[in-house]
Amino acid sequence: MAAHYSCQRILELGQRWMICLLVLCLCVCLSGESNARKAPKIPRCPATCSCTKDSAFCVDTKAIPKSFPPGIISLTMVNAAFTTIPEGAFSHLHLLQFLFIENNDIQALSKYTFRGLKSLTHLSLSNNNLQQLPRDIFKHLDILTDLDLRGNSFRCDCKIKWLVDWMEKTNTSVPAIYCASPFEFQGRRIHDLAPRDFNCISADFAVYENFPFHSVSVESYEFNGDQFVAFAQPDSGFCTLYVWDHVEMVFRRFHNITSRSAVYCKPVVIDNTLYMVVAQLFGGSHIYKWEEDPQRFIKIQDIDTTRVRKPNFVETFQLDGEWYFVVADSSKAGSTSIYRWNSNGFYSHQSLHPWHRDTHVEFLDAGGKPHLILSSASQPPVVYQWNRSQKQFAFFFQITELADVQMVKHFWVRKVLYLCLTRFIGDSKILRWEGQRFTEIQTLPSRGSMAVYPFTVGLRQYLILGSDFSFSRVYLWDDLTQRFQPFQELNMRAPRAFSLISVDNKDILLAASFKGNTLAYQHLVVDLSAK
């Protein structure tokens, strides 16, 4: 009995020991797996680098290594086999304090190359092939104390202007660096340049709105606080009015004046009343008055067809407090005629230049004396001067010997009077008033041009020459040379007139096109240093 109990007891003890051993083995295994998870593999030093406890020195590296031993605070890269460094290339080295990218052929950096390097205090990009640096590349390097950019071939143009401005304001120490180009800055210390040394504000004319019709005239005007545009449409013969929508920021159709063959629609506001002179090729020309209730134009007057047979252009002006308009007549039998407002309507005032097939008339006030310049298909342009005692325009002088002048427009630059004469066959001319006569100062190629328009946006003086055969050309006045310089080419078909309207902080150039859609271009200011 005792022996049997002893055997059973020994068996029970053995089973307990087996269970303990199994539990012990399981714990050891789990402990081993846990230790394996807690002890990740330590990154090795890249093959092209030599590393110490806290630094790495890399030579002939084909790309920036993806991993380094932990604790690296200093990295040097020389004779690298790459020429660009992309965005966030060092973001995995967030402890980096010293970064030396020297004696390489680095040509381009991303704006965000150094993103994530919050601890960086020293940066060297010396002896590379950098010509420019992306704007604000150092913006987030908050504790950067030393920056070395020596030994690069910096091009000192608008793309470096931001660096000049940054160096003026930063507390970071930057040893002297020099301009390699362009010629006017070559060899100059960048530290000695100022932001004002760079002319980086440019502009661009971009299509803003496309009108699905042809037109031969365009006039903008303001009435009752709104901005309007009037187009003469050769296909329908109508005068079509558009109004600026301040919400949608576009022109929307407002009203039509039904006519047979409108070639010019000229608005004039007299004593808060809107009138529209509608010049027609057939059926006579008329004057319309706008009524508010109901909203419509009503015809109030016909223009004498014995005087105005084939109108080509209408100009309005004020003299001694009185309103006038003049119609350039291009027929062989008609004459350019002036009409004066007389409380109830416009009445014939004077006939000018009969039998000369006038194409355009320009009003200008020079030296306190009003003048009219008439362009003609049959003779060179002539000037008429206002005689105040007789209240008549009298022939003054012939501007030039040039024939085939389609249009003459004037403009002022720093109180100096200039004329632009545009020609369909020959070159256009820029003339300057010398006190007694106009002197030619510039020739502009303009084959096929029937319209010219000088205009200003801010401080910029522009001139656009339309063309029936090629691109229309925009020119910009250069104060240094006192000449127009080519600025931009615009693709429009057979433009006949232009008008500038400024509304809601937008400057919009409207172009009436005889063979294509009428277009509106927005003048956009472009800061070249912001790219």
Automatic annotation (TrEMBL):
<feature type="signal peptide">
    <location>
        <begin position="1"/>
        <end position="36"/>
    </location>
</feature>
<dbReference type="InterPro" id="IPR032675">
    <property type="entry name" value="LRR_dom_sf"/>
</dbReference>
<dbReference type="GO" id="GO:0005576">
    <property type="term" value="C:extracellular region"/>
</dbReference>
<protein>
    <submittedName>
        <fullName>Leucine-rich repeat LGI family, member 3</fullName>
    </submittedName>
</protein>
<keyword id="KW-0325">Glycoprotein</keyword>
<dbReference type="InterPro" id="IPR000483">
    <property type="entry name" value="Cys-rich_flank_reg_C"/>
</dbReference>
<dbReference type="Pfam" id="PF03736">
    <property type="entry name" value="EPTP"/>
</dbReference>
<dbReference type="GO" id="GO:0017157">
    <property type="term" value="P:regulation of exocytosis"/>
</dbReference>
<dbReference type="InterPro" id="IPR001611">
    <property type="entry name" value="Leu-rich_rpt"/>
</dbReference>
<feature type="domain" description="LRRCT">
    <location>
        <begin position="152"/>
        <end position="201"/>
    </location>
</feature>
<keyword id="KW-0964">Secreted</keyword>
<keyword id="KW-0433">Leucine-rich repeat</keyword>
<dbReference type="InterPro" id="IPR051295">
    <property type="entry name" value="LGI_related"/>
</dbReference>
<keyword id="KW-0732">Signal</keyword>
<dbReference type="Pfam" id="PF13855">
    <property type="entry name" value="LRR_8"/>
</dbReference>
<dbReference type="InterPro" id="IPR005492">
    <property type="entry name" value="EPTP"/>
</dbReference>
<keyword id="KW-0677">Repeat</keyword>
<dbReference type="InterPro" id="IPR009039">
    <property type="entry name" value="EAR"/>
</dbReference>
<dbReference type="InterPro" id="IPR003591">
    <property type="entry name" value="Leu-rich_rpt_typical-subtyp"/>
</dbReference>
<dbReference type="GO" id="GO:0008021">
    <property type="term" value="C:synaptic vesicle"/>
</dbReference>
